Amino acid sequence: MEELSEGVSNLGVYNETHKKNRIQVSNTKKPLFFYVNLAKRYMEQHEEVELSALGMAIATVVTVAEILKNNGLAIEKKILTSTVDMRDEVRGCLIQKAKVEITLGKSEQFEELMAAAVEEQVVTPEVEEQS
């Protein structure tokens, strides 16, 4: 049994599927800005975040990455594309799905922009109360 565990660890399968800075994106479960905000939080905790998606969710991952880059929060570090064999639940046959993994790192102004956003959230409610 120990040999099996050791073999799995050596393959990197276990470590790869349990990365602490990976976000697996779905295009049906959560709204777009859920993933944008989640990626920001992950980048606060880690130096980089990996966004991963299959099939139709790829457009969501690309959009999230572009929002973070265009807002000056992230820089693109790596993009990997591949295909993954999956079993079609209806037909029972193997199908290939496109997969993308985008790794983003913190931009030089990440901390400054995040601090400004927090400050803006604190100031905004006070302005609304005075009106």
Automatic annotation (TrEMBL):
Pfam family, one: Alba
Domain spans labelled DNA/RNA-binding protein Alba-like: 21-83
Gene3D superfamilies cross-referenced by the UniProt entry: Alba-like domain
Designated name of the protein: DNA/RNA-binding protein Alba-like domain-containing protein
